[in-house]
Amino acid sequence: MDKYCFGVDLGGTTVKIGLFSIEGQLQDKWEIPTRTENHGAEILSDIAASIQSRMDTGHLSKEQVTGIGIGVPGPVLNENIVQGCVNLGWGNVRVADELSALTGMKVKAANDANVAALGEQWQGGGKGFQNLVMFTLGTGVGGGIIQNGRIISGANGAAGEIGHMVIVDSDEVVGTCGCGHRGCLEQVASATGIVNLTEKKLAECSQDSVLREISPLTAKDVLDAAKAGDALAEQAAENMMKQLGRAAAYIACVVNPDIFVIGGGVSKAGEYLIEGISRYYKDYAFHASADTKFALASLGNDAGMIGAAGMVCTL
Amino acid sequence: MDKYCFGVDLGGTTVKIGLFSIEGQLQDKWEIPTRTENHGAEILSDIAASIQSRMDTGHLSKEQVTGIGIGVPGPVLNENIVQGCVNLGWGNVRVADELSALTGMKVKAANDANVAALGEQWQGGGKGFQNLVMFTLGTGVGGGIIQNGRIISGANGAAGEIGHMVIVDSDEVVGTCGCGHRGCLEQVASATGIVNLTEKKLAECSQDSVLREISPLTAKDVLDAAKAGDALAEQAAENMMKQLGRAAAYIACVVNPDIFVIGGGVSKAGEYLIEGISRYYKDYAFHASADTKFALASLGNDAGMIGAAGMVCTL
Predict the structure, then answer these.
(1) Which residue among A40, A144, A259, B84 is the one 20 to 30 A from B53 at the CA level?
(2) Is the pLDDT of residue A224 over 80?
(3) Whether the bond into B216 is cis, omega within 30 of 0
């Protein structure tokens, strides 16, 4: 009898659901809207109904489904309890218990950044390695820590919050981070941070730059200009890659991964980014972990759904 | 039938061996010399003979012994292979396999700083918590990371090398760290680092200080003078505690422990140190992990032996 599992990536707007073979082959994927009204009261029953519907269509019995993994946009304790998701209107919710009661199947829950890291370790840019750290460089900077093929979630579900390492002086960033600090990695290395710091530099100096022609400026503009040799853009990109390399070296002193995987929108800068971050990493890394690999994430927006399935594929 | 295990702390001069009940109660402990001559060829057979002798005396059968845990002063892969121990004259040694062959019992090996962290988590300052990070402040700065009651050793056995986070500018330290970098936490927060930085300050300024009367200066002198209100000593102590607090905040963004445990000779400064480090920690910590606890280590030099036993007590 063939065995399957479901991976669910619960976002603030849509829920992505995938049906996987137990070996991790995607069989089907689809999306449903996330109904955040009424404090998100219908979200889990919508997911349960969608999964049941897919099982009916495919003539799948519960005995054929090993379990359901779900990634949620908030801190998660014990693969079960979400400690508040502002985006969903949720307070504390026993996600795994509730979805299990609704479906009659085993459920494991984890933070969305953490399941994305697990996805990249299981099927993506970090495939073949047991110990991985992922940086997700998007609007913010997220992260996930995988050791021995399992998510490290920490005491409060706050492991992997590597965007909030207060890594530079407060006068080296623009404004205050969403977390309340000044000097977070997120303020230097997120798409928003890159743009803010580049605009500050453009305003403060009169150096020529192709970026002066562009409005509104995006992180992609800055990184494209840097690759093309624009000096001001290069300074901005080097600063960002230096701080990411430094942060990676600190992280390696803690968990010593086999590989760092870089994902999120900013990672579309590709090998340029990998070369830069790993060059600065070597400047700061402890000798025993100086050869840690760096790679690009390869699963894109499916990483969370795939990693969620990965949590339960070996139940 | 009562069950037992052995914990072995293998140091460069002596081997500490303990006999424990499976619940972790110490029954007996003793020491044998570490014979480092001939590339340490006799070390493991000496340990095996000593354990066998204690089993003979106590009429213990192999069936009554769950296993042997051993902490070694070097990086360890897969609870087995030591990747070189300069202090012992060892290259790569399959410690667990070899000691198991010599004794006919199950053996697990780990790095000495890591087993000390496990000891403090199992029976010491971190008892009752599953997720712990230990700082050992001695001649150097060592560390150990425990998640879900297990040692995180990392890809190269270099997890927990938190003394080698390059955390300050090179002009804020004296000389070069043993690892080759300038600016490591170890150069600020080890006993050696505290003395070096205080002596530099004494030489560079003419500020009054009781420390000017003391030669040779020790870290204890500096911390005692700081507690007594000597302004120059206070500046030195505050700088050290600030960098430890910063490092702890970075570490919490990675693994989010329940508790930080502070051990090693410098930790004899006691609650003064805990208060200072945790005060600076709050300045840098991410809000979700801002309430992480800090405590003193309580097992002293027995932490390694106890943690080594802890590795096998539940085999």
Answers:
(1) B84
(2) yes
(3) yes
Contact B164 A131 (CB under 8 A): no
Strands A259-263 and A293-296: parallel
Minimum CA–CA partner of B284 in chain A? A166
ipTM of predicted assembly, 2 dp: 0.94
For chain A, which residues make up each domain, given as ranges?
4-119+302-312, 127-298
Q: Cβ A255–B253 below 8 Å, yes or no?
A: no
CA atoms of B275 and B256, how far apart (whole Å): 19
B86-94's contacts with Cβ under 8 Å and 24+ in sequence apart are B87/B11, B87/B12, B87/B36, B88/B10, B88/B12, B88/B34, B88/B36, B88/B40, B88/B43, B89/B36, B89/B37, B89/B38, B89/B39, B89/B40, B90/B39, B90/B40, B90/B43, B91/B39
| pLDDT confidence band for A26 (50 / 70 / 90) | very high
What was the pLDDT predicted at A315? 57
Range A127-298 classified under CATH 3.30.420.40: yes
Q: How many angstroms away from the CA of A152 is the closest CA of chain B?
A: 7
Q: For A145-159, A168-182, A295-309, B76-90, which range has the lowest pLDDT when averaged over its residues?
A: B76-90
Q: Which band of pLDDT confidence, cut at 50, 70 and 90, is reported for residue B235?
A: very high
Cα distance between residue B172 and residue A17, in whole Å: 52
Strand partners, B70: B8, B109
Whole-number pLDDT of residue B315: 57
Quote the pLDDT of residue B87: 83
Chain A residues in contact with B145 (beta carbon < 8 A): 254-255
Nearest residue to B161 (alpha-carbon basis) of B137, B184, B180, B144: B144
- Joined together, the tokens standing for residue B192 give 């050696």
A237-255 pLDDT tens trace: 999 999 999 999 999 999 9
Tell me the C-alpha distance between B222 and B241, whole Å. Answer: 13
- Write out pLDDT tens, residues B264-295: 999 999 999 999 999 999 999 999 999 999 99
Name chain A contacts of B251, Cβ cutoff 8 Å: 254
Q: Which residues contact A4 (CB under 8 A, 6 or more apart)?
A: A19, A20, A21, A22, A27, A60, A64, A65, A66
What percent of chain B stands above pLDDT 70? 99
Give the rounded percent of residues in chain A with a pLDDT score beyond 70: 99
Q: Which CATH superfamily is domain B129-297 in?
A: ATPase, nucleotide binding domain (3.30.420.40)
Tokens of B115: 């087993």
Neighbouring CB atoms inside 10 A of A60's CB total 18
Name the band, by pLDDT with cuts 50, 70 and 90, for residue A83: confident
What CATH fold (topology level) applies to the domain A4-119+302-312?
A: Nucleotidyltransferase; domain 5 (3.30.420)
Q: What is the mean pLDDT of chain B?
A: 95
Residue bearing tokens 């106590």: B58
Where does the pLDDT of residue B27 fall: very low under 50, low under 70, confident under 90, or very high at 90 and above? very high
**Sequence-ordered list of residues with C-beta below 8 angstroms from that of A170, at least 6 positions apart, any chain:** A182, A183
- With b for 16 or more beta-carbon neighbours within 10 A and e for fewer, the A276-293 pattern comes to bbbebbeebbbebbbebb
A97 alpha carbon, distance to own chain's centre: 24
Residue of A nearest to B288 (CA): A158
Contacts of B167 in chain A (CB under 8 A): 250
